[in-house]
UniProtKB/TrEMBL annotation:
Superkingdom of the organism of origin: Bacteria
Pfam families (UniProt xref): YceD
Chain segments carrying region Disordered: 135-163
Name of the protein in question: Nucleic acid-binding protein
Length: 178
């Protein structure tokens, strides 16, 4: 779905609302080759015009299948998130009215391609660590082998506090309270 900024600006009285189901599977797999499957993406949103430009607000939900970051087994994750972005023409990129926290997109050709916007936001929402339910449970032992172990952040913190580097052992008494 594409809109021109001129078309969106003409709708200044009534917001343009939409409810779409997008098939972004091939584009997302091209952008992120480790994606195993992408179910149809549901997008419900609107565009409104204010003194700053065009404001887009969307609710996005989709199901993705990714490899586990630990075992490479397929894991299905569900993403539900909101997107709020401002769109400006490249002819008038005055950013002085916006807050530092506002997301402002300057459109090079004054065409808003909803598919590209949603693809980018889906890629931003994919978590860094994807684990199956079995792997996420705390009673599941972590993999290990000869001379290597997988450590969690918590176990790394515990390990740091328990062991003292022998090179610094003499320094522990240097700042004694006496």
């Amino acid at each position: 779905m594409k809109w021109s900024l001129k078309e969106l600006n003409q709708a200044s009285i009534e917001p343009i609302s939409f409810n779409e189901t997008l098939d972004l599977s091939s584009d997302l797999k091209e952008l992120r080759p480790d994606l195993i499957d992408v179910k149809p993406v549901k997008v419900d949103g609107l565009f409104s015009v204010d003194e700053l430009g065009v404001l887009g607000y969307y609710k996005v939900s989709c199901d993705l299948v990714l490899p586990s970051t630990r075992s490479f087994e397929p894991v299905e994750i569900t993403l539900n998130f909101d997107v709020t972005e401002h769109y400006l023409s490249h002819h008038q990129p005055d950013m002085s009215e916006f807050e530092n926290t506002d997301v402002v997109i300057i459109l090079e050709d004054d065409i808003l391609d909803l598919n590209k916007v949603i693809e980018d936001n889906i890629l931003l929402q994919i978590p860094m660590q994807v684990l199956s339910a079995k792997e996420a449970s705390s009673d599941q032992p972590l993999p290990n082998g000869d001379d290597w172990d997988v450590l969690t952040e918590d176990s790394k913190r515990e390990n740091r506090t328990q062991t003292i580097d022998p090179r610094f052992a003499k320094l522990k008494d240097f700042f004694s309270e006496e």
